[in-house]
Design brief:
Elements lengths: L1 E7 L5 H10 L3 E4 L6 H8 L8 E5 L11 H10 L5 E6 L2 H11 L11 H18 L2 E4 L5 H12 L9 E8 L10 E4 L20 H7 L3 H24 L3 E8 L5 H14 L5 E6 L4 H7 L1
Parallel strand pairs: 1-3, 1-4, 2-3, 4-5, 6-8, 6-9, 7-8
Helix pairs in contact: 1-6, 2-3, 4-5, 8-9
């Protein structure tokens, strides 16, 4: 029997995650009254029962009885009902944006601002986050990327590190990404923009990649960058960090930064035990500005 308790911040994707787990064979129940969880767990753990995988959604909608969850979990442990806790989180500013886009009100906000409700919810759920076996930050995840992470844990039974890495190329002239944890400047490399046959291409094109990586400085930089990031990752995991954004910037975010970001992504992706994806924030912006 695999018994998963799915919880986390409102707006972080719990409903979507439950549907995904249901699609891969989990018996899913959302917002079950806290007082019923004990009995539900006992029924789920019946030997030779038809149900072998359960996902139970618990969140702030439980109201004041949410405080009883800790005692319920202790009782489950005493009775030998093994469980795992998955906590879905997202940055406050992302949650606010999602609420504004859907025009929903936060369950704890009342008639006040959404961010007040988010702060209150975060405080109430802190004890569950501390107990979580898995924490997934959905701030920058697409729906399909969330599915990949869930499949790793609950379908393929891969060892999961509570860290998701985004490698983000950008152009300094469009501003440093506000969510970047680490920022690296590759403007020291020769700029393909000034090579006529490369000007209108990008770091996703082989010609630009060959040009940028043809310099010893680029190869040495990439080697040192990979070494540093590989050193930092396990230390970030030990610290409890679950989201890491690595920004690599050049002037326009089209040639050098894209090339180096792609190269770093390829190296880190090999045998990675953590989630990782790549984004090119500004790769099309020069073209768009010319049209305007």
């Amino acid at each position: 029997m695999r018994f998963v308790i799915l919880t986390g911040m409102s707006g972080a994707g719990k409903s979507t995650a439950l549907k995904m787990l249901e699609d891969v064979g989990y018996f899913c129940v959302d917002n079950l009254p806290i007082s019923f969880i004990d009995k539900f767990a006992e029924l789920s753990f019946v030997p030779n029962g038809e149900i072998s995988k359960v996902a139970l959604g618990i969140d702030i909608r439980s109201g004041q009885s949410l405080g009883e969850v800790e005692k319920v979990l202790e009782n489950m442990t005493i009775k030998g009902c093994a469980f795992e806790i998955l906590f879905l989180d997202a940055k406050d500013e992302v949650l606010v944006k999602r609420y504004k886009e859907t025009r929903r009100s936060h369950p704890l906000a009342g008639g006040e601002r959404v961010d007040k409700g988010i702060r209150e919810e975060r405080a109430r759920l802190e004890f569950l986050k501390k107990k979580a076996d898995y924490i997934i930050d959905t701030s920058s995840l697409l729906t399909r990327e969330l599915k990949v992470e869930l499949d790793k844990i609950f379908v393929n039974d891969q060892e999961y590190k509570n860290l998701f890495i985004t490698i983000l190329s950008f152009g300094f002239k469009y501003g440093i990404p506000s969510d970047a944890d680490l920022v690296f400047d590759v403007r020291f490399l020769p700029n393909p923009f000034y090579v006529d046959e490369l000007k209108n291409k990008s770091g996703n094109d082989k010609e630009v990649q060959d040009f940028c990586m043809g310099f010893d400085a680029a190869k040495e930089f990439l080697k040192k960058l990979e070494d540093m990031v590989q050193f930092l990752i396990p230390n970030y995991i030990l610290e409890g960090k679950n989201q890491l954004v690595i920004g690599i910037g050049c002037t326009g975010g089209k040639h050098r930064s894209v090339t180096l970001a792609n190269e770093l992504f390829k190296r880190l992706k090999e045998d990675a035990e953590y989630g990782i994806k790549i984004e090119h924030r500004d790769i099309e912006k020069d073209a768009l500005r010319k049209k305007i």
